[in-house]
Amino acid sequence: MNQHLHETHPRIVKRLKRADGHLRSVIKMIEAGRPCLEIAQQLHAVEKAIAQAKKTLIQDHLDHCLEEVVGPLARDRRRSIDEFKEIAKYL
User: Fold this and answer.
1) Using 50, 70 and 90 to split pLDDT, how confident is the model at 44?
2) Are 81 and 70 in contact (CB under 8 A)?
3) 9-88: which CATH number, 3.30.300.20, 3.30.200.20, 1.10.10.10, 1.20.58.1000?
4) DSSP H helical ranges for 1-91
5) Is residue 65's pLDDT more than 80?
6) 37 vs 25: CA distance, rounded Å
7) What integer pLDDT is reported at residue 7 of this predicted model?
C-alpha cells in the first residue's frame, strides 16, 4: 500500500483519538442514564471534533495533492483552482 502522509496527519490522528475517547465516555453516560441534555451536548462536541478533523484532512489534500496534480498553470486557469480551494473551506 502506498504510504500517503502529510504534516497535518499526526494532528488529525491526535484529534480523532481524543474524539474516540470522548465518544466512549458518552456511551458510558448513556448506559449510566445521564440526562439527555448532557448527552446531546457531549455528542455535539464529538461531532464537531470529527468534522474539524475531516475539514483539516480535505484542506490538506487540496493544498498538497491537488497542487501536485495540476502543476504550474497560467494565471486565468490558476484562478479557477484557487477559487475551488477557497469554496471547499465551506464544506
Assistant:
1) very high
2) yes
3) 1.20.58.1000
4) 9-31, 36-61, 67-70, 75-88
5) no
6) 15
7) 83
